[in-house]
Amino acid sequence: MTISPNLSAIMCDGMGWFSEIDYKRMLLTYDEIYYLLPKDSVPFTDVEGKKQHIFFPVIFRGNPSFKIHHFIPDDKSRQLIIAAAQADISNPKFIQVIGTIPKHEQLYTWRIVNADGDIGTGQSINLNPDEAGLAHALLLNKFLIAANSLQSIPITGKPYIHGLISEKYSAGVERLRAEHPDLLPPPLRAGTIKHNPVVSRIVTALVPDQELEQHTDIDIMQFKEKNRPLFQRYSYAARDLVKQVSALPISDEFEAEVDELIRTEVWKEKAEIEKELKSAWESLFKSAIKSAVGGLVGVGITPFLSLGAIAWASVAAAAIAVSPWVTSELIDFLEAGKKAREHGLYYLLKFARQSESF
User: With 60 as the cut, is the pLDDT of residue 215 above it?
Assistant: First the structure.
């Protein structure tokens, strides 16, 4: 029986590496894990001037613990990805974060983007060797839009990729605040945006690292299957938690609402489920977990607030600066998403469209 509603996540090749423990913890927490890869891998000119290809092994595509996902943007989405990426690389802070990425990872991302025929409409986008920043921006925007289309949580394994997402979102909100502060939700109208550390957490800590090290991916999947009713309760509890918090993660109100949340019956239900899952683990593997369960809001709140409006807005807000068509055409797409109306960007786009008739 499939857990409903599912907790799904998406990773992206070229957006930072994951450790084995990170991945096992994802398997433990999420019902579905997608891995974003180009559907059309095309030849490109490598840094040495020679034609190169990137191939993904067949065995990789058949991995039962995650699903390969292809996102092929339509013309409007492709224009949006490019426009938003251009805006991103005009931000010195965004470029500064890219400078912290190890050179070999910068090169890998550059190669992935050049080989991505989905972005280049069937051919390489032909980035120059000195355009690693643009490569990261293009892939990041594609990643966020793909996550939004699946309603999956975009997850990354390295702090510098968290930093790119954080800077991208902060810049988008700062732009709206400067031009139309009355259109932003109250928590975002004033004050300094801060990146709450909880935003960067990959998943809840149901089981300590040392326990995960001792068991295989198959062990973890079997554990989830044997305890499916418990995980179903966990999925519903996570969504109940989301409903209790209306503030955005970068606001002071968010921390206050979380403090209030831990005194509610909903939080007690989640804590009880985690306790039962912990006991189930000990029963199956005959290994006592001595550390306290430290789930907090890692999977219960913040990732869901990062879906839809927040992730999508961080793309669209950047694109407004360099692409006028966004304000006149993108709003129809935004209106299709339930969460779009909850974000100030929706009203800014609506205002921009109405202004065109004057």
Answer: yes
Domain ranges of the chain: 1-358
Count of CB atoms within 10 A of residue 290's CB? 7
Q: How far apart are CA 265 and CA 180, in angstroms?
A: 39
Angle at 119 between CA 114 and CA 124, to 5 degrees: 35
CB-based contacts of 331, cutoff 8 Å, min separation 6:
346, 349, 350, 353
Q: Which residues contact 333 (CB under 8 A, 6 or more apart)?
A: 76
Q: In sequence order, what are the beta bridge partners of 33?
A: 9
What the block records as the tokens of 208 is 């300590």
Question: For residue 68, what is the enclosing H or E element?
Answer: strand 67-69
Q: Which residues pair with 10 in a beta bridge?
A: 34, 154
Please give the Cα distance from 211 to 344 (Å, whole number): 43
- Contact partners, residue 324, CB within 8 Å, separation at least 6: none
* First-to-last C-alpha distance (Å) of the chain: 55
Retrieve residue 164's tokens: 């790119």
In this prediction, residue 116 carries a pLDDT of: 94
When mean pLDDT is compared across 127-136, 217-226, 274-283, 349-358, the lowest value belongs to 349-358
User: Count of alpha carbons within 13 Å of 185, Cβ hemisphere only?
Assistant: 20
Kindly state the tokens that stand for 95.
Answer: 């470029």
The model carries a pTM of 0.71
Kindly write down the DSSP assignment for every residue of 265-283, as one continuous string: HHHHHHHHHHHHHHHHHHH
Q: How does residue 190 score in pLDDT terms, banded at 50, 70 and 90?
A: low
